[in-house]
Design a protein that fits this description.
The chain has 4 helices and no strands. The chain is an all-alpha fold and 171 residues long.
Length: 171
């Protein structure tokens, strides 16, 4: 079982590195596949542990001293493999938690960027909507530079909002 456990340990290390890379697609599926393999291994090993435990307690008088020593050694190996399986399952659960945290942080960053863009665009749309109303007496409507002034004001507001959000590290 030890070579199989070493191979699974190597795959878990690869998954740990993959979680923090930008290409974490398929990580959850790979983790669950490994968890299934570990569960099957545990199902196979658990009954073996009980058998070798019975052999080491000298419940069988036909077994000699060297046989009991051998079975004790095998029992210790089975216990180590079982503990390693449990440890790997815990690590895989942690990998899933870390993956979900990374995905959640990426989503939060995307939502933050969309929020900044929507606030800037909504402010500009409000100003454009106010000047697009069909009223006679809108401030700056008859002014020679009214159109350019409105565009300049909108640009200043957009830059000021962008600078504010950059300073708050939202963008």
């Amino acid at each position: 079982y030890f070579p199989a456990m070493d191979a699974i340990g190597d795959r878990i290390e690869d998954l740990e590195a993959l979680v923090f890379s930008n290409d974490g697609t398929g990580t959850v599926e790979q983790v669950f596949r490994l968890k299934r393999v570990l569960l099957e291994m545990r199902r196979l090993i658990a009954p073996t542990r009980e058998v070798f435990n019975a052999f080491t307690r000298r419940e069988f008088p036909l077994l000699g001293g060297t046989s009991v020593t051998y079975f004790q050694d095998v029992y210790d190996h089975v216990i180590r493999v079982t503990d390693t399986i449990d440890g790997y399952r815990d690590i895989l659960s942690t990998i899933i938690d870390v993956h979900l945290t990374v995905v959640s942080n990426d989503l939060n960053q995307s939502v933050r960027t969309l929020t900044v863009a929507s606030i800037i665009l909504m402010t500009l749309a409000l100003i454009a909507g106010l000047y697009g109303m069909n009223f006679r007496y809108i401030p700056g409507l008859d002014w020679r530079f009214g159109y350019v002034g409105a565009l300049a004001g909108m640009a200043i507001i957009a830059v000021a909002l962008g600078w504010t959000f950059r300073r708050l590290r939202w963008w």
